[in-house]
Amino acid sequence: MTIVRTRLSPHLGVELTGIDLSQELTAATRQAILDAWIDAGVLLFRGLGTSPETHMRLSEVFGELEPAATASLNDPNNPYLMNLSYYPDKPGAYQKHYTVQGIDRAGWLGWHWDQSFMPTIVRGAILRMVEPAARMGETGFIDAVAAYDRLTDAQKARIDGLEVVYEFNPDFTSGQFGFPKDICAIDADLPAIGPGHKFDFPPVVHPLVITQHETGRKVLKLSPMHARYVLGMGRDESDALLEEIAEHLVDPRYAYFHAWGRDDMIVWDNWRVIHSANGVPLECARYAQRTTIMGDYKVGRYLDATRSSNDIGRRIVD
Question: What is 4-317's CATH number, 3.30.160.70, 3.30.1490.100, 3.10.290.10, 3.60.130.10?
């Protein structure tokens, strides 16, 4: 079997072909996939996600899996498969609609890395498209290693050693750094999650710059969605710095937006790559499944120094 790498964009990601996911993978194939992932940050397996079984087979290449924290999203037949669906006639408990750039959208998510509001950082995720949207529905990816490299020497010196406080914030219109300025919520009086739920997310702290373990490259580790302020910095100075760094990070010139086909699978490195969801028009259905790869850089912590980072607890409490 010959595995071929084809670049997805000039800036990040590769498509891998020559892999048969209908059968168990050899050790050499698994290592080739892992090597490509470390090198590229995002891998596309076009049309290969033909079943939950192939999804799980690919996912297990990257490490131990963890169930979704929100149990109601887990597939009833497999707790490691998260169901991410939107059907116009079946609104979900965790969905809020937004108008962005004049388009009403369901499932829109701004730039982020997963679990920024937790002291632990999952290793990555694999998304499989079961039912692509008739229109829109792209997922965006940006390489934060390349974003760090694009910083000026003065910017690198300024952010060296800084830490950012993150706090879960389901309201995407509350002034997130690097988010569209024209975003507004549809039915703004509706809660971001269903009634009867509450949050249990104490503030956490993560470094603004981390190091990729395998290569020693620096990563601009900012998650715009839930970043609140720079620890130990005055609010005005902090806001200005985070806005500057976020706008640099989310520059669309360096993004890859994947237009999904049925059975496409993409795996991304959550320690290195930020991602976003373009959303779908309110009348368009879309259904995907996702697995999450367990792992942690072990550099995050709770802002409350008396609380252990191992004390995770439930993330959303029913």
Answer: 3.60.130.10
